[in-house]
Fold this sequence. Notes:
CATH topology of the largest domain: Translation Initiation Factor IF3
Strand content: 15-25%
Radius of gyration: 38 Å
Strand order of the largest sheet: 4-3-6-5
Oligomer: single chain
CATH superfamily of the largest domain: Translation initiation factor 3 (IF-3), C-terminal domain
Number of domains: 2
CATH class of the largest domain: Alpha Beta
CATH architecture of the largest domain: 2-Layer Sandwich
Amino acid sequence: MSLLEATMGSGDYQYDTQARRYLISEPRVNERIRVPEVRLVGPEGEQVGIVRIEDALRLAVEADLDLVEVAPKAKPPVAKLMDFGKWKYEAAVKARQSRRNQATTQLKEVRFRLKIEDHDYQTKVSQAQKFLKSGDKVKAMIQFRGREQQRPELGVQLLERFADDVAEFGEVESKPRQDGRNMVMVVGPLRGAQATRGKGGAHKPRQGGGSRRDRAAAAAREAREEEAQRAEPKNSIADAMPEELKQQASQANDGPKPGPKN
């Protein structure tokens, strides 16, 4: 046994020339297990005990299975009877599913000045909403100039306004904090029940006027309410009469009423 095998344990290794290190390729199987005895585990996980490698290989042939070294550093090494081909296939399927289920979240950055114009601010908000809807995090950064660094509370107010305007698609993960001449805040996409609430729930406009989108939504909502009130069903036939007919009926009612004839 070489010094490398004695240091890292028995097993098959291949040399990675780029990383300049030895990597374990896969466990040793059947005749590639070069030890005098192993602690044998049956195909259902039952403990067989310590047996000679020849006996373990014979049991593997009789059961039409493979002898796989699962713990090469144990004394003696642990080997298990299994269908190695089936195990490799199932492991590959699980690895693919795990990679598919992993969300590749990226950190997008949105920068703006403290004295930003409303149009530019709305553009930044739209970009952040797009990032959040695609599942990425947003790092909002305010860049201070000159004496603006003496008014950090203005930066906090602007970032809080930004958080309110993207609250339909994300929530604050890192509150505003000073970072040199900048102030940063991290907003993450909504997950699980919060995502459902963000899609189905009504977006509440920010106090004090809100953004342009909030004001437009409020105006549209008021217009729909007025139309609904005008379209309310009439409770009687008299309510549905035109105003002219109502006036004529009122004048007729105000005239002299017929009395009993003498």
